[in-house]
Amino acid sequence: MLKPNFKEAKKRTKEDIKVLREEYVVPESVKEIGKGKKYFIKTYGCQMNEHDSEMISAILEDMKYTKTDTYEDADLIILNTCAIRENAHNKTFGMLGRIKHLKQTKPELMVALAGCMSQEESVVDEIISKYKWMDFVFGTHNIHKLPEILEEHLNTKKLEVNVWSNEGNVIEGIPAKRDSSIKAWVNIMYGCDKFCTYCIVPYTRGKQRSRMPEDIISEVKDLISKGYKEVTLLGQNVNAYGKDFKNKDYKMENLLEDVAKTGIERVRFVTSHPWDFTDNMIDIIAKYDNICNYIHLPVQSGSSRILKLMGRRYTKESYLELYKKIRNKLGENASITTDIIVGFPGETKEDFSDTLALAEECKYDSAFTFIYSPRQGTPAASMEDNVSLDEKNERLYKLNDVINKYAKEANDKLVGKVVKVLLESVSEKDSSMLAGYTDTMKLVNVKADKKYIGKIVNVKILEAKTWSLDGEIDE
Ligand code: SAH
Ligand code: SF4
Ligand code: F3S
Asked: Nearest ligand, CA of residue 46?
């Protein structure tokens, strides 16, 4: 049994990050273990988890499992979890409750926990004491070891816990079974060293480790050869890409330029921490047409006092300066979105009005807004929190009103205009329509024939809603 350990997870040594290329192996004894069996993966959390689930799928299919979308039909259920807020945590435990019932009627069913919650000591302790019926637990650092962990569990028939709390390496050569054949996630870095005081990610994902540029570029080229139209470069803090290289000076601006030069039709990247956003990066985004004019720039709070307590390393003023620089360079048509937390410990009415004022000033295209959720083991969890939940809810409503107003306004501006949309799928709201995104990440529903799926088309916008647009093909 290898349990997670927060003290270890927090450590950042000067040790070199290794790129390991031969770590993923499927032992002979489990190569056919999934024959005639089905797997189901439930994914919570961010895009990194979505991409990890694509890897878990490919690994399971290497062992001959086939996918099912209904967990009741599965022989193996994997919950790929998120630890960012209490409600993500609660959702997983709710799902485990339902699965427990299923396991009672289907004792051969295997159930596993993966992802960021597996990296939490308190969660794994709870699993060991109250969820002994589960089969195995693995973490974010050892996805590639899944076949061996499964093999071990089959040998012992006991709950197998195998979670690493090391700083982490870069593991190349893990296969991925991508959910889409049109757009793809591409990891460019793992982990995070920012240690914002409220955030669990640096503990669950380890030290910042950038992938080698040549590995990223060859993945993008391979995706182009398979017909992919769009890549999203992924990391918790992509602007810090390359800062961990000891022997070369190669940063996010270099990578963005090299990815743009591959000729892929669209390049996106998330998430940008304001701290590492350089002028050169903005220039590169402006220079290449295939780098999308869409910047997700989480601000978290509009109060410099709270930003300091959050450990964000910028002030309201320096954020606004960066925001304006990006707007001026990319133009009014660029889209900028953000993340905001309300009710951080000690947030006063004045702090919150600073946040509202900032939202009014930035007029974001959209935003994810959250009520602060204390995460065990982070510095903010031991700060005094004297704002009531009612007050926090009220602040969230007020903030959402402002966010929604400007989201609608940004969409209204597009009515009558012709925009380029990458059509991806049949629309969820109307099966006679297709859905896709503009390069500025606006969801557009379009009356169009299915033959347009996978194509970038000109669409005339007919109607704007708060969170989507309706349009028709403009030929
Ligand atoms: N790396 C990104 C954020 C990743 S987490 C960045 O630094 O910008 C996504 C969002 O979840 C964060 O931007 C933050 O707004 C929110 N979040 C993180 N920890 C949280 C917590 N403890 N409570 C509430 N929201 C949180
Ligand atoms: Fe969390 Fe901050 Fe890292 Fe983002 S930059 S993942 S908020 S610690
Ligand atoms: Fe959640 Fe882990 Fe992502 S905590 S937001 S799944 S990095």
From this structure: 3
